[in-house]
C-alpha cells in the first residue's frame, strides 16, 4: 500500500520539473516560483490521490481498493486515478501561473478538460460505469455555468479562465458524486474567503484588490476529492 503512493510522489516530483518549465513560460513577467515548490506540490498531490485509490475503504465506488476485482475493474480504477492525476498535474501549473500573473491560459485549461474527459471515458468503458459519465458532464456544465454567472455579475471579481477551469473541476467532481461537487465548490470559496479576510486584516490588500481565485478552486476541488469517503 505504501509503495504505489511513494512511486506516485517520485513521479510527481519528476513531472514537476517539467511543470516548473510551463509555470515559468506562462508566468512571464511574473517571475519564477520558489525552488522546488512546484515539484513538491505535484508530488504531494499525486501521492495523496494514489493513496486514496489503493487503500481499501477510502473510495466509495470501489471499497476494496485499486486491486480488488477482475482485470477490467482494475483497469477502470486505474484510468479513473489517471484522470484525477492528470487533472491535478495541470491544475498545479494553472494555480502557480494564476498566482503569479492572474491568468489561466486557454491551452492549459483545454488540456485539463480534454485529458480528464478522455480518461474518465476510458474508465467508464472498462468498468461499465456509463451511468457516471452523464453526471460528470452535467457536473462540469453546472460548475462552469455557476462561474459564468459570477463573471457576468462581476467581471472584475471572476475571469473567463476561472469559468473554463470550473468545467474541468466540475467534470471530475461530478464523476465522484453530486455531494463531492458541492463540497469542492464550497471549499474553494471558503478558502478564498479566509485568505481575503486575512489580507484585509493584515492590510496587505484593500476591498477592491484583485485576488487570483484559481488556486482556491484547485484547493477546494482536490480537498473534496480526498474527503469524498466522508461526504
TrEMBL record:
Gene3D superfamilies noted in UniProt: 1.20.120.1220
Transmembrane domains' residue ranges: 74-96, 138-156, 176-201, 213-230
The organism's place on the tree of life at top rank: Bacteria
InterPro entries the record matches: Peptidase_A24A_bac, Prepilin_IV_endopep_pep, Prepilin_peptidase/N-MTase
GO process annotations (BP): methylation; signal peptide processing
Keywords: Hydrolase, Membrane, Methyltransferase, Transferase, Transmembrane, Transmembrane helix
Prepilin type IV endopeptidase peptidase domain: residues covered: 87-197
GO cellular component: plasma membrane
Documented EC number(s): 2.1.1.-, 3.4.23.43
Record-level Gene Ontology MF annotations: aspartic-type endopeptidase activity; methyltransferase activity
Annotated family: Belongs to the peptidase A24 family.
Protein name per the record: Leader peptidase (Prepilin peptidase)/N-methyltransferase
Source taxonomy: Bacteria, Bacillati, Actinomycetota, Actinomycetes, Streptosporangiales
Amino acid at each position: 500500500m505504501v509503495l504505489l503512493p511513494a512511486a506516485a510522489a517520485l513521479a510527481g516530483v519528476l513531472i514537476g520539473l517539467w511543470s516548473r518549465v510551463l509555470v515559468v513560460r506562462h508566468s512571464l513577467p511574473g517571475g519564477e516560483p520558489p525552488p522546488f515548490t512546484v515539484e513538491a506540490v505535484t508530488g504531494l498531490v499525486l501521492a495523496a490521490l494514489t493513496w486514496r485509490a489503493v487503500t481499501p475503504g477510502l473510495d466509495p465506488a470501489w471499497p476494496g481498493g485499486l486491486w480488488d476485482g477482475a482485470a477490467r475493474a482494475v483497469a477502470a480504477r486505474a484510468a479513473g486515478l489517471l484522470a484525477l492525476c492528470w487533472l491535478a498535474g495541470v491544475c498545479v501549473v494553472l494555480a502557480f501561473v494564476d498566482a503569479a500573473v492572474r491568468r489561466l491560459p486557454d491551452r492549459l485549461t483545454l488540456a485539463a478538460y480534454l485529458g480528464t474527459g478522455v480518461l474518465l471515458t476510458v474508465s467508464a468503458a472498462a468498468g461499465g460505469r456509463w451511468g457516471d459519465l452523464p453526471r460528470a458532464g452535467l457536473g462540469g456544465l453546472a460548475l462552469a455555468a455557476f462561474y459564468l454567472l459570477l463573471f457576468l455579475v462581476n467581471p472584475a471579481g471572476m475571469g473567463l479562465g476561472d469559468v473554463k477551469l470550473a468545467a474541468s473541476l466540475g467534470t471530475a467532481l461530478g464523476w465522484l458524486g453530486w455531494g463531492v461537487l458541492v463540497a469542492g465548490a464550497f471549499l474553494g470559496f471558503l478558502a478564498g474567503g479566509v485568505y481575503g479576510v486575512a489580507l484585509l486584516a493584515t492590510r496587505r490588500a484593500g476591498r477592491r484588490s484583485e485576488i487570483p481565485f484559481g488556486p482556491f478552486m484547485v484547493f477546494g476541488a482536490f480537498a473534496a476529492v480526498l474527503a469524498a469517503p466522508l461526504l
